Amino acid sequence: MDFVPITKEGYERLKKELERLQREERPRVIKAIEEARGHGDLSENAEYEAAKERQALVEAQINDLCDKLSRCRIIEDFDRSEDRVTFGCTVVVEDVDTGATERYRLVGPYEAQVERGSISITSPIGKALLGREVGDEVEVKTPKGIRRLEILSVEWNHNGK
């Protein structure tokens, strides 16, 4: 079985979410099912059906997180190069065509959150940047077309973000 790289913070976030689902959501759903059963005929009980659907969703989320956590390998020994883009670093790039700068932290696929500035090393941009150095220019095929990015800096002061 192949492993999926993850930061310690990312692993802890997944683990915390699993615990929340198991300790809070699952009991809440079970209680909702019990209450709905008390309302009589289950064949026409919309509350019961909704609670059962929610239960299926929560169980699917729990199973998914258990599967993800079993595949993860925490990577802590980062190659903290000042010039080379590696797993766990934050890289600042400039779009050569627009001049816009963006900041990305390269993380594993289970913890990537583009809206929070972290991208997966398996994403098109992540793959293109990984192993490259400050000053390198990369071309990335994205859904919006080819993007040309210049690597401006590599940082390690992400503070777990």
TrEMBL record:
Gene name, Swiss-Prot/TrEMBL: greA
Domain of life: Bacteria
Domain (Transcription elongation factor GreA/GreB C-terminal): residue spans on this chain: 81-155
Record Gene3D superfamilies: Transcription elongation factor, GreA/GreB, C-terminal domain, Transcription elongation factor, GreA/GreB, N-terminal domain
Membrane spanning residue stretches: none
Function description: Necessary for efficient RNA polymerase transcription elongation past template-encoded arresting sites. The arresting sites in DNA have the property of trapping a certain fraction of elongating RNA polymerases that pass through, resulting in locked ternary complexes. Cleavage of the nascent transcript by cleavage factors such as GreA or GreB allows the resumption of elongation from the new 3'terminus. GreA releases sequences of 2 to 3 nucleotides.
Short name of one Pfam family: GreA_GreB
GO molecular function: DNA binding; RNA polymerase binding; translation elongation factor activity
Signal peptide: none
Domain Transcription elongation factor GreA/GreB N-terminal, residue spans: 4-74
Coiled coil: none
The entry's keywords: DNA-binding, Elongation factor, Protein biosynthesis, Transcription, Transcription regulation
Family note: Belongs to the GreA/GreB family.
Biological-process GO terms, alphabetical: DNA-templated transcription elongation; regulation of DNA-templated transcription elongation
Protein name, UniProt field: Transcription elongation factor GreA
